[in-house]
């Protein structure tokens, strides 16, 4: 008997096609079922101007979710850091596969590292989170570079450096790895320097919640630790009431003693884009055993950050 192919809805961008293709392979391996990619054009893909105006929150996600709800596709893959923190009731987050490298990186001219950039160097990024932390690092380390707001996909950003318009751009390691361009990286930024976006490096696999068989089948791809970590990170973001373009960094990681996992640490940062004011805190405790415990960890850290004035640092938007 031939099985009906599972339809995987995907954006057409190089990154989306790469990560959808990789998940399609994993689902084929895991379930033995054929998977076909169905391209969905999103509002953000059609109009750069529209994207700038509506601020980018979840635009790439919405069209895929609409196609799921309408039954046009069976499942979809998102970059988890682009997912809004509220989960629609009719959709299930069926799997969060093992996270890729969560770090940000720079791609600079002449193979330069961040600390080698000459005075007055221009670093492109569209992210207030990256600007805030890079500028704070420059202030505290006597560096003198300037962050410049840019937009565009990975290829476009790298081209700014190739064309000599900028000295460097900041990108996520995971995105470069997925599209096979990791050799472009000239410096991996330590998470002590730039804390990544909540969920960075992780993928989210969604299908409709009423499709129990598919929820279970896709669940085979879930990595429980990654799920707990990103749940805590996103809970922090939600509790700070910050949108995806807010200058919030968060990362949960495991503290191990040899092979034995001891605890989970959750770090969070909020800052003004000029880097002049930052609230950066961390909490360490037992690895959450339930979804609710992971949510509570994020909320608790957010409460502490808000008590230190985090809310007053988040009003800005990068221009
Ligand atoms: N902001 C766009 C975006 N959304 C997801 C990734 C790739 C990294 C990931 O999956 O977390 C990127 C590119 C980037 O930030 O460089």
From TrEMBL:
Q: PROSITE patterns in the record, alphabetically?
A: PORPHOBILINOGEN_DEAM
Q: Which UniProt keywords apply?
A: Porphyrin biosynthesis, Transferase
List required co-factors: dipyrromethane
Domain Porphobilinogen deaminase C-terminal: where?
A: 229-306
Q: What chemistry does it catalyse, as a reaction equation?
A: 4 porphobilinogen + H2O = hydroxymethylbilane + 4 NH4(+)
Porphobilinogen deaminase N-terminal domain sequence ranges: 6-214
Q: What class of enzyme is it?
A: transferase
Free-text remark on how the cofactor is bound: Binds 1 dipyrromethane group covalently.
E.C. number, please? Answer: 2.5.1.61
In terms of HAMAP family, this protein maps to: Porphobil_deam (MF_00260)
The task this protein performs is described as: Tetrapolymerization of the monopyrrole PBG into the hydroxymethylbilane pre-uroporphyrinogen in several discrete steps.
Give the quaternary structure: Monomer.
What other remark does the UniProt record contain for this protein? The porphobilinogen subunits are added to the dipyrromethane group.
Q: List the protein's name.
A: Porphobilinogen deaminase
Taxon lineage: Bacteria, Bacillati, Actinomycetota, Actinomycetes, Kitasatosporales
Q: Which gene codes for it?
A: hemC_2
């Amino acid at each position: 008997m031939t099985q009906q192919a599972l339809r995987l809805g995907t954006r057409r961008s190089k990154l989306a096609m790469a990560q959808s293709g990789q998940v399609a392979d994993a689902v084929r391996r895991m379930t033995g079922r054929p998977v076909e990619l169905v391209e969905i054009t999103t509002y953000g893909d059609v109009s750069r101007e529209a994207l700038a105006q509506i601020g980018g929150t979840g635009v790439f996600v919405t069209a895929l979710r609409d196609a799921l709800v309408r039954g046009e596709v069976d499942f979809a893959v998102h970059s988890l850091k682009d997912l809004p923190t509220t989960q629609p009731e009719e959709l299930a987050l069926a799997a969060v596969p093992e996270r890729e490298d969560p770090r940000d990186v720079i791609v600079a001219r002449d193979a330069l590292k961040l600390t080698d950039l000459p005075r007055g160097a221009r670093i492109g990024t569209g992210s207030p989170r990256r600007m805030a932390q890079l500028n704070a690092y420059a202030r505290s380390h006597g560096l003198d570079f300037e962050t410049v707001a840019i937009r565009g996909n990975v290829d476009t950003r790298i081209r700014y450096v190739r064309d000599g318009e900028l000295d460097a751009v900041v990108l996520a390691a995971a995105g470069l790895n997925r599209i096979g361009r990791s050799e472009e990286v000239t410096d991996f930024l330590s998470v002590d320097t730039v804390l990544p976006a909540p969920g960075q490096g992780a993928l989210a696999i969604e299908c409709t919640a009423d499709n129990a068989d598919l929820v279970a089948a896709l669940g085979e791809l879930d990595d429980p630790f990654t799920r707990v970590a990103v749940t805590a990170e996103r809970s922090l973001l939600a509790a700070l009431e910050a949108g995806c373009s807010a200058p919030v960094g968060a990362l949960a990681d495991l503290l191990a003693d040899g092979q034995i996992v001891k605890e989970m640490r959750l770090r969070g940062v909020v800052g003004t884009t000029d880097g002049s004011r930052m609230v950066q805190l961390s909490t360490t405790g037992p690895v959450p055993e339930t979804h609710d415990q992971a949510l509570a960890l994020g909320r608790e850290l957010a409460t502490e950050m808000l008590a230190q004035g985090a809310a007053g640092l988040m009003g800005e938007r990068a221009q």
